[in-house]
């Protein structure tokens, strides 16, 4: 007997198996959920690194507001989603749309940037790796769906790989990690994003770009008064090239690209399978440090890579039907 996630069809995928003509060229990527989820977490890894580096140039709420405002503008100008057509369906379930916008756009990213003010990017990515646990918990509490034994085992294997990477193979380093107030902010952010992921199945059946544009706008509107309060405390954005490039990166890649990839991936494979891809974030962070910061690729990185990929393969493997 299959779980609910095994039975979930890919909505709007346009694959050959669902009676729709197959996509061609780059459009085929939209039907590759595991590639989409891998891309989403790659850009989120860069989000943590850049958010930490820019903490003195861009205050957290200001960064979140500018990120989503610019992301909404880009989606509107470049994609031109059919919002007018989809608005009646979203209006009918506006409470759900409002909740998802608050969780996935307004709250999560603001709390992540707030966490990066007082803790390290490494600590943030480690905490973010716990997201699959909370996704499984929220999915069970709300929908009474249990994580399968195979998914739980795959999670444990993959998370072991995360620990190998962040400890460089020396387990005593884990005990030496310092946890700060920012880690509590990030833990709360992880719980919030787990709820967003689990509740995505309740979103209206509309064009994904329409849904993204509306939630981006709502999230930015929710953040605007908080940003004004932040400015009143003396925290304002620096007039620098670094600040401008930071806003541009987080608006394009962790926002427009990652949110499309992640939402589509969750739609196709379900919350629990998608959640394990968060374990790629520390792995990507290590590789980014090797490429851009000149850090060494250690044997522990190779071992961690094998464990993380192995755990993901175990978790995402579907049972063969008889």
From TrEMBL:
Gene Ontology CC annotation, any one: membrane
Keyword Chaperone: no
UniProt keyword terms in alphabetical order: Membrane, Transmembrane, Transmembrane helix
Membrane-spanning residues: 34-54, 60-79, 91-113, 125-143, 152-172, 184-202, 209-229, 235-262, 274-292, 298-316
Chain segments carrying region Disordered: 1-24
Protein topology in the membrane: Multi-pass membrane protein
Predominant location category: membrane
Keyword Amino-acid biosynthesis: no
Entries under InterPro entries matching the protein: AA-Vitamin_Transporters, EamA_dom, EmrE-like
Subcellular location: Membrane
Domain EamA as annotated: residue spans: 34-166, 181-316
Sequence similarity: Belongs to the EamA transporter family.
Protein name as annotated: DMT family transporter
């Amino acid at each position: 007997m299959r779980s609910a996630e095994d039975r979930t069809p890919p909505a709007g995928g346009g694959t050959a198996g669902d009676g729709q003509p197959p996509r061609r060229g780059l459009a085929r990527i939209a039907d590759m959920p595991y590639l989409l989820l891998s891309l989403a977490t790659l850009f989120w890894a860069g989000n943590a690194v850049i958010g930490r580096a820019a903490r003195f140039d861009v205050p957290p709420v200001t960064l979140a507001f500018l990120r989503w405002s610019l992301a909404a503008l880009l989606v509107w100008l470049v994609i031109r989603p059919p919002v007018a057509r989809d608005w009646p369906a979203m209006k009918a379930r506006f409470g759900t749309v409002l909740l998802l916008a608050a969780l996935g756009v307004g709250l999560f990213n603001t709390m992540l940037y707030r966490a990066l003010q007082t803790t390290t990017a490494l600590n943030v990515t480690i905490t973010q790796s716990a997201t699959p646990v909370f996704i499984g918990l929220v999915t069970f509490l709300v929908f009474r769906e249990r994580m399968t034994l195979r998914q739980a085992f795959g999670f444990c294997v993959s998370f072991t790989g995360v620990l190998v990477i962040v400890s460089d193979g020396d387990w005593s380093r884990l005990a030496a990690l310092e946890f700060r107030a920012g880690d509590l902010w990030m833990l709360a952010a992880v719980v919030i994003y787990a709820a967003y992921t689990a509740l995505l199945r309740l979103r209206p059946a509309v064009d994904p770009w329409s849904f993204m544009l509306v939630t981006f706008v709502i999230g930015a509107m929710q953040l605007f008064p908080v940003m004004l309060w932040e400015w009143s405390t003396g925290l304002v954005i620096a007039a620098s090239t670094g600040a401008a490039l930071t806003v541009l990166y987080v608006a394009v890649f962790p926002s427009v690209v990652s949110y499309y990839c992640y939402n589509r991936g969750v739609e196709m494979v379900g919350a629990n399978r998608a959640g394990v891809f968060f374990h790629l974030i520390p792995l990507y962070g290590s590789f980014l440090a090797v490429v851009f910061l000149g850090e060494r690729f250690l044997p522990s990185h190779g071992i961690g890579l094998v464990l993380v990929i192995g755990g993901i393969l175990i978790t995402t493997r579907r049972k063969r039907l008889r």
